[in-house]
Amino acid sequence: MTTTTRVLIAADKFKGSLTAAEVAEHVAAGLRAHRPDTAVTALPVADGGDGTVAAALAAGFTSRTVTVTGPMGEPVRAEFALREDTAVVEMATASGLVLLPPGEFAPLTATTAGTGELIAAAVEAGARTVVLGIGGSATTDGGAGMLVALGVRLLDATGRPLPPGGAALRELAAVDLSGLDPRLADTRVVLACDVDNPLTGPQGAAAVYAPQKGATAADVAALDAALQQYARVLGAAAGEGAAALAQSPGAGAAGGVGFGALAGLGAEFRSGIEVMLEVLGFADALKDADLVVTGEGSLDAQTLHGKAPAGVAAAARAAGVPVVAVCGRLALDEAALRAAGIERAYALTSLEADTSVCLAQAGPLLRRLARQVAADRL
To answer: Which keywords does this chain's UniProt record carry (predicted)?
Structure first.
Protein backbone atom coordinates (compact mmCIF):
# COMPACT_ATOMS: atom_id res chain seq x y z
CA MET A 1 0.00 0.00 0.00
CA THR A 2 1.44 3.40 -1.03
CA THR A 3 1.66 6.03 1.68
CA THR A 4 0.76 9.59 0.69
CA THR A 5 3.72 11.93 0.96
CA ARG A 6 2.98 15.25 2.65
CA VAL A 7 4.91 18.18 1.24
CA LEU A 8 5.11 21.66 2.74
CA ILE A 9 6.03 24.36 0.21
CA ALA A 10 7.57 27.29 2.09
CA ALA A 11 9.37 29.36 -0.53
CA ASP A 12 9.97 33.09 -0.96
CA LYS A 13 9.27 35.00 -4.17
CA PHE A 14 11.41 34.71 -7.32
CA LYS A 15 12.12 38.42 -7.56
CA GLY A 16 11.19 39.88 -10.92
CA SER A 17 9.14 36.90 -12.03
CA LEU A 18 6.95 35.15 -9.43
CA THR A 19 5.40 36.02 -6.09
CA ALA A 20 5.85 33.56 -3.24
CA ALA A 21 2.24 32.43 -3.69
CA GLU A 22 2.84 31.84 -7.42
CA VAL A 23 5.99 29.86 -6.65
CA ALA A 24 3.97 27.60 -4.36
CA GLU A 25 1.25 27.21 -6.99
CA HIS A 26 3.68 26.12 -9.71
CA VAL A 27 5.65 23.79 -7.43
CA ALA A 28 2.44 22.14 -6.24
CA ALA A 29 1.28 21.64 -9.82
CA GLY A 30 4.60 20.08 -10.81
CA LEU A 31 4.65 17.73 -7.85
CA ARG A 32 1.12 16.58 -8.52
CA ALA A 33 1.82 16.12 -12.23
CA HIS A 34 4.27 13.38 -11.25
CA ARG A 35 2.45 12.12 -8.14
CA PRO A 36 -1.25 13.09 -8.19
CA ASP A 37 -1.82 11.75 -4.68
CA THR A 38 0.77 14.06 -3.09
CA ALA A 39 -0.68 16.03 -0.17
CA VAL A 40 0.59 19.59 -0.57
CA THR A 41 0.40 22.48 1.90
CA ALA A 42 1.44 25.90 0.62
CA LEU A 43 2.85 28.45 3.07
CA PRO A 44 4.45 31.32 1.11
CA VAL A 45 7.13 33.01 3.23
CA ALA A 46 9.10 36.26 3.34
CA ASP A 47 11.97 37.62 5.42
CA GLY A 48 10.73 41.13 6.18
CA GLY A 49 11.53 42.66 2.78
CA ASP A 50 9.21 43.22 -0.13
CA GLY A 51 6.58 40.53 -0.34
CA THR A 52 6.14 40.31 3.43
CA VAL A 53 2.55 41.58 3.43
CA ALA A 54 1.74 39.35 0.45
CA ALA A 55 2.99 36.32 2.39
CA ALA A 56 0.82 37.26 5.36
CA LEU A 57 -2.23 37.67 3.14
CA ALA A 58 -1.60 34.25 1.58
CA ALA A 59 -1.52 32.81 5.12
CA GLY A 60 -4.99 34.13 5.88
CA PHE A 61 -4.43 37.69 7.07
CA THR A 62 -6.88 40.38 5.90
CA SER A 63 -5.80 43.27 3.69
CA ARG A 64 -6.22 46.83 4.96
CA THR A 65 -5.38 49.80 2.75
CA VAL A 66 -4.95 53.42 3.87
CA THR A 67 -3.67 56.68 2.40
CA VAL A 68 -0.38 57.82 3.96
CA THR A 69 2.43 60.29 3.29
CA GLY A 70 4.90 59.03 0.71
CA PRO A 71 8.67 59.51 0.94
CA MET A 72 8.56 62.86 -0.90
CA GLY A 73 5.46 64.10 0.92
CA GLU A 74 2.91 62.97 -1.63
CA PRO A 75 -0.15 60.88 -0.69
CA VAL A 76 0.20 57.16 -1.47
CA ARG A 77 -2.00 54.13 -0.89
CA ALA A 78 -0.32 51.60 1.40
CA GLU A 79 -1.41 48.14 2.48
CA PHE A 80 -0.94 46.21 5.70
CA ALA A 81 -2.12 42.78 6.77
CA LEU A 82 -4.18 42.09 9.90
CA ARG A 83 -5.22 38.91 11.68
CA GLU A 84 -6.83 39.20 15.10
CA ASP A 85 -4.48 41.49 17.06
CA THR A 86 -1.38 41.04 14.88
CA ALA A 87 -0.53 43.34 11.98
CA VAL A 88 2.20 42.93 9.38
CA VAL A 89 3.43 46.25 8.02
CA GLU A 90 5.81 46.60 5.08
CA MET A 91 7.74 49.86 5.24
CA ALA A 92 8.44 49.89 1.49
CA THR A 93 4.74 50.32 0.71
CA ALA A 94 4.74 53.68 2.53
CA SER A 95 8.34 54.92 2.38
CA GLY A 96 9.99 52.81 -0.29
CA LEU A 97 12.27 53.50 -3.22
CA VAL A 98 9.62 51.93 -5.45
CA LEU A 99 7.39 54.95 -4.76
CA LEU A 100 9.83 57.49 -6.20
CA PRO A 101 9.47 58.66 -9.80
CA PRO A 102 11.95 56.88 -12.12
CA GLY A 103 15.41 58.41 -11.79
CA GLU A 104 14.43 60.72 -8.93
CA PHE A 105 15.83 60.50 -5.40
CA ALA A 106 15.55 62.60 -2.26
CA PRO A 107 18.36 61.37 0.00
CA LEU A 108 18.38 64.44 2.26
CA THR A 109 14.65 65.08 2.56
CA ALA A 110 12.82 61.74 2.11
CA THR A 111 10.60 60.99 5.09
CA THR A 112 9.34 57.90 6.92
CA ALA A 113 6.15 59.70 7.98
CA GLY A 114 4.04 57.23 6.00
CA THR A 115 5.52 54.32 7.91
CA GLY A 116 4.44 55.92 11.17
CA GLU A 117 0.98 56.56 9.75
CA LEU A 118 0.76 52.93 8.66
CA ILE A 119 1.68 51.78 12.19
CA ALA A 120 -0.96 54.13 13.61
CA ALA A 121 -3.56 52.70 11.23
CA ALA A 122 -2.68 49.17 12.32
CA VAL A 123 -3.03 50.11 15.98
CA GLU A 124 -6.34 51.86 15.23
CA ALA A 125 -7.51 48.62 13.57
CA GLY A 126 -6.86 46.72 16.79
CA ALA A 127 -3.29 45.48 16.43
CA ARG A 128 -1.38 44.93 19.65
CA THR A 129 1.57 43.33 17.89
CA VAL A 130 2.97 45.13 14.86
CA VAL A 131 5.55 43.26 12.80
CA LEU A 132 7.41 45.90 10.81
CA GLY A 133 9.29 44.69 7.74
CA ILE A 134 11.88 47.37 7.03
CA GLY A 135 13.50 46.67 3.68
CA GLY A 136 13.56 48.81 0.53
CA SER A 137 13.32 52.28 2.07
CA ALA A 138 13.94 55.53 0.16
CA THR A 139 14.90 57.28 3.38
CA THR A 140 17.82 58.06 5.68
CA ASP A 141 15.99 59.96 8.41
CA GLY A 142 16.55 57.56 11.30
CA GLY A 143 12.83 56.97 11.55
CA ALA A 144 12.32 60.61 12.54
CA GLY A 145 9.32 61.03 10.24
CA MET A 146 7.83 57.82 11.63
CA LEU A 147 8.11 59.12 15.19
CA VAL A 148 6.65 62.52 14.29
CA ALA A 149 3.67 60.80 12.66
CA LEU A 150 3.14 58.93 15.93
CA GLY A 151 3.11 62.12 18.02
CA VAL A 152 6.76 62.87 18.81
CA ARG A 153 8.02 66.46 18.40
CA LEU A 154 11.52 67.08 17.01
CA LEU A 155 12.58 70.68 17.65
CA ASP A 156 15.45 72.97 16.68
CA ALA A 157 17.19 75.41 19.05
CA THR A 158 14.39 77.97 18.59
CA GLY A 159 11.70 75.45 19.47
CA ARG A 160 10.43 75.06 15.92
CA PRO A 161 9.60 71.63 14.47
CA LEU A 162 12.22 70.31 12.07
CA PRO A 163 11.37 69.88 8.38
CA PRO A 164 11.25 66.32 7.01
CA GLY A 165 14.32 64.30 6.08
CA GLY A 166 17.61 63.15 7.49
CA ALA A 167 19.64 66.26 6.75
CA ALA A 168 17.45 68.41 9.00
CA LEU A 169 18.41 66.28 12.01
CA ARG A 170 21.72 68.19 12.15
CA GLU A 171 19.70 71.01 13.75
CA LEU A 172 17.91 68.80 16.28
CA ALA A 173 18.07 70.34 19.76
CA ALA A 174 15.21 68.72 21.66
CA VAL A 175 12.86 65.74 21.45
CA ASP A 176 9.45 65.83 23.11
CA LEU A 177 8.07 62.32 23.59
CA SER A 178 5.04 63.38 25.63
CA GLY A 179 2.70 63.29 22.64
CA LEU A 180 3.61 59.76 21.53
CA ASP A 181 0.44 57.79 20.79
CA PRO A 182 -0.40 56.27 24.22
CA ARG A 183 -1.70 53.06 22.62
CA LEU A 184 1.88 52.20 21.70
CA ALA A 185 2.65 51.61 25.37
CA ASP A 186 0.52 48.46 25.08
CA THR A 187 1.72 47.54 21.58
CA ARG A 188 4.58 45.18 20.82
CA VAL A 189 6.57 46.45 17.83
CA VAL A 190 8.84 43.85 16.21
CA LEU A 191 11.41 44.85 13.59
CA ALA A 192 11.65 42.04 11.04
CA CYS A 193 14.96 42.48 9.28
CA ASP A 194 18.18 40.69 8.33
CA VAL A 195 20.40 43.80 8.30
CA ASP A 196 22.71 44.26 11.30
CA ASN A 197 24.34 47.63 10.57
CA PRO A 198 24.68 50.25 13.34
CA LEU A 199 23.14 53.70 12.89
CA THR A 200 26.32 55.68 12.21
CA GLY A 201 29.95 55.27 11.20
CA PRO A 202 31.61 53.48 8.28
CA GLN A 203 29.10 50.60 8.44
CA GLY A 204 26.16 52.83 9.28
CA ALA A 205 22.93 53.73 7.53
CA ALA A 206 24.33 56.69 5.60
CA ALA A 207 27.68 55.22 4.57
CA VAL A 208 26.40 51.83 3.41
CA TYR A 209 22.89 52.46 2.10
CA ALA A 210 22.39 56.16 1.32
CA PRO A 211 24.37 55.98 -1.96
CA GLN A 212 21.76 53.48 -3.20
CA LYS A 213 19.16 56.17 -2.48
CA GLY A 214 20.88 58.87 -4.53
CA ALA A 215 23.27 60.32 -1.94
CA THR A 216 26.59 61.86 -3.03
CA ALA A 217 29.72 61.59 -0.90
CA ALA A 218 28.92 65.02 0.57
CA ASP A 219 25.35 63.91 1.28
CA VAL A 220 26.63 60.81 3.07
CA ALA A 221 28.86 62.90 5.33
CA ALA A 222 26.01 65.32 6.10
CA LEU A 223 23.56 62.50 6.82
CA ASP A 224 25.98 60.64 9.08
CA ALA A 225 26.64 63.80 11.12
CA ALA A 226 22.89 64.44 11.32
CA LEU A 227 22.20 60.90 12.51
CA GLN A 228 24.91 61.26 15.18
CA GLN A 229 23.14 64.36 16.49
CA TYR A 230 19.81 62.55 16.35
CA ALA A 231 21.21 59.64 18.36
CA ARG A 232 22.51 61.99 21.04
CA VAL A 233 19.32 64.00 21.44
CA LEU A 234 16.75 61.23 21.03
CA GLY A 235 18.90 58.97 23.21
CA ALA A 236 18.92 61.54 26.00
CA ALA A 237 15.15 62.03 25.76
CA ALA A 238 14.34 58.32 25.67
CA GLY A 239 16.24 57.49 28.84
CA GLU A 240 19.22 55.55 30.11
CA GLY A 241 20.84 53.29 27.56
CA ALA A 242 18.84 54.61 24.61
CA ALA A 243 21.74 56.49 23.00
CA ALA A 244 23.85 53.31 23.03
CA LEU A 245 21.19 51.62 20.90
CA ALA A 246 22.59 53.58 17.94
CA GLN A 247 25.47 51.11 17.76
CA SER A 248 23.36 48.00 18.27
CA PRO A 249 22.87 45.55 15.37
CA GLY A 250 19.99 46.65 13.17
CA ALA A 251 19.93 50.29 14.32
CA GLY A 252 21.02 51.34 10.84
CA ALA A 253 18.44 49.23 9.02
CA ALA A 254 16.24 51.04 6.49
CA GLY A 255 18.03 54.37 6.80
CA GLY A 256 18.06 54.24 10.58
CA VAL A 257 14.41 53.33 11.15
CA GLY A 258 15.83 50.55 13.31
CA PHE A 259 17.20 53.08 15.79
CA GLY A 260 14.07 55.23 15.75
CA ALA A 261 11.93 52.20 16.55
CA LEU A 262 14.30 50.76 19.14
CA ALA A 263 14.86 54.02 21.04
CA GLY A 264 11.55 55.76 20.39
CA LEU A 265 9.07 52.88 20.40
CA GLY A 266 10.82 50.27 22.54
CA ALA A 267 10.79 47.87 19.60
CA GLU A 268 12.38 44.43 19.45
CA PHE A 269 14.84 43.57 16.68
CA ARG A 270 14.51 40.03 15.33
CA SER A 271 15.59 38.04 12.31
CA GLY A 272 13.00 38.75 9.63
CA ILE A 273 12.49 35.16 8.60
CA GLU A 274 12.32 33.88 12.18
CA VAL A 275 9.57 36.29 13.17
CA MET A 276 7.69 35.74 9.91
CA LEU A 277 7.76 31.96 10.34
CA GLU A 278 6.30 32.47 13.79
CA VAL A 279 3.59 34.85 12.54
CA LEU A 280 2.70 32.63 9.58
CA GLY A 281 2.34 29.49 11.69
CA PHE A 282 5.23 27.54 10.15
CA ALA A 283 5.77 25.27 13.16
CA ASP A 284 2.20 23.96 13.03
CA ALA A 285 2.36 23.41 9.27
CA LEU A 286 5.66 21.56 9.66
CA LYS A 287 4.24 18.98 12.08
CA ASP A 288 2.57 16.97 9.32
CA ALA A 289 5.26 17.35 6.65
CA ASP A 290 7.46 14.58 5.25
CA LEU A 291 9.35 17.00 3.00
CA VAL A 292 9.80 20.78 2.83
CA VAL A 293 10.38 22.62 -0.45
CA THR A 294 11.82 26.10 0.05
CA GLY A 295 13.54 28.51 -2.30
CA GLU A 296 13.95 31.98 -3.78
CA GLY A 297 15.07 33.54 -7.03
CA SER A 298 18.79 33.27 -6.35
CA LEU A 299 20.37 30.85 -3.89
CA ASP A 300 23.72 32.47 -3.15
CA ALA A 301 25.95 33.64 -0.33
CA GLN A 302 23.35 36.19 0.81
CA THR A 303 20.85 33.36 1.30
CA LEU A 304 22.97 32.06 4.15
CA HIS A 305 22.73 35.35 6.06
CA GLY A 306 19.15 35.38 7.28
CA LYS A 307 17.25 34.99 4.03
CA ALA A 308 14.02 33.00 3.90
CA PRO A 309 15.32 29.64 2.58
CA ALA A 310 18.03 29.47 5.24
CA GLY A 311 15.52 30.22 7.99
CA VAL A 312 13.06 27.65 6.68
CA ALA A 313 15.79 25.02 6.37
CA ALA A 314 17.10 25.68 9.89
CA ALA A 315 13.63 25.32 11.41
CA ALA A 316 12.86 22.17 9.41
CA ARG A 317 16.19 20.59 10.25
CA ALA A 318 15.57 21.23 13.95
CA ALA A 319 12.30 19.30 13.56
CA GLY A 320 13.96 16.47 11.63
CA VAL A 321 12.16 17.18 8.34
CA PRO A 322 14.26 17.01 5.13
CA VAL A 323 14.47 20.10 2.91
CA VAL A 324 15.10 20.66 -0.80
CA ALA A 325 15.15 24.01 -2.55
CA VAL A 326 14.08 25.43 -5.90
CA CYS A 327 15.56 28.60 -7.34
CA GLY A 328 16.16 30.59 -10.49
CA ARG A 329 19.93 30.42 -10.27
CA LEU A 330 22.19 28.46 -7.93
CA ALA A 331 25.49 29.90 -6.67
CA LEU A 332 26.09 27.63 -3.66
CA ASP A 333 28.00 24.38 -3.73
CA GLU A 334 26.75 21.15 -2.22
CA ALA A 335 28.71 21.62 1.00
CA ALA A 336 27.23 25.08 1.61
CA LEU A 337 23.73 23.80 0.93
CA ARG A 338 24.10 20.91 3.34
CA ALA A 339 25.57 23.17 6.01
CA ALA A 340 22.40 25.27 5.68
CA GLY A 341 20.20 22.20 6.04
CA ILE A 342 19.26 21.89 2.35
CA GLU A 343 19.79 18.40 0.94
CA ARG A 344 19.61 19.44 -2.71
CA ALA A 345 18.78 22.49 -4.81
CA TYR A 346 17.11 22.56 -8.22
CA ALA A 347 17.67 25.60 -10.46
CA LEU A 348 15.72 26.87 -13.46
CA THR A 349 19.06 27.48 -15.18
CA SER A 350 19.62 23.72 -15.25
CA LEU A 351 16.68 23.58 -17.67
CA GLU A 352 17.26 26.84 -19.52
CA ALA A 353 20.68 28.55 -19.67
CA ASP A 354 19.29 31.89 -20.86
CA THR A 355 18.35 33.84 -17.73
CA SER A 356 16.01 36.15 -19.65
CA VAL A 357 13.99 33.10 -20.68
CA CYS A 358 14.04 31.88 -17.08
CA LEU A 359 12.53 35.18 -15.97
CA ALA A 360 9.93 35.23 -18.73
CA GLN A 361 8.98 31.55 -18.43
CA ALA A 362 9.58 31.06 -14.71
CA GLY A 363 6.20 29.43 -14.04
CA PRO A 364 6.30 26.65 -16.66
CA LEU A 365 9.98 26.00 -15.97
CA LEU A 366 9.31 25.76 -12.25
CA ARG A 367 6.60 23.16 -12.89
CA ARG A 368 9.12 21.08 -14.85
CA LEU A 369 11.62 21.49 -12.04
CA ALA A 370 9.04 20.38 -9.47
CA ARG A 371 8.43 17.23 -11.49
CA GLN A 372 12.14 16.49 -11.09
CA VAL A 373 11.82 17.01 -7.34
CA ALA A 374 8.89 14.61 -7.28
CA ALA A 375 10.74 11.99 -9.32
CA ASP A 376 13.68 12.16 -6.94
CA ARG A 377 11.90 12.46 -3.60
CA LEU A 378 8.29 11.23 -3.75
So the answer is: Kinase, Transferase
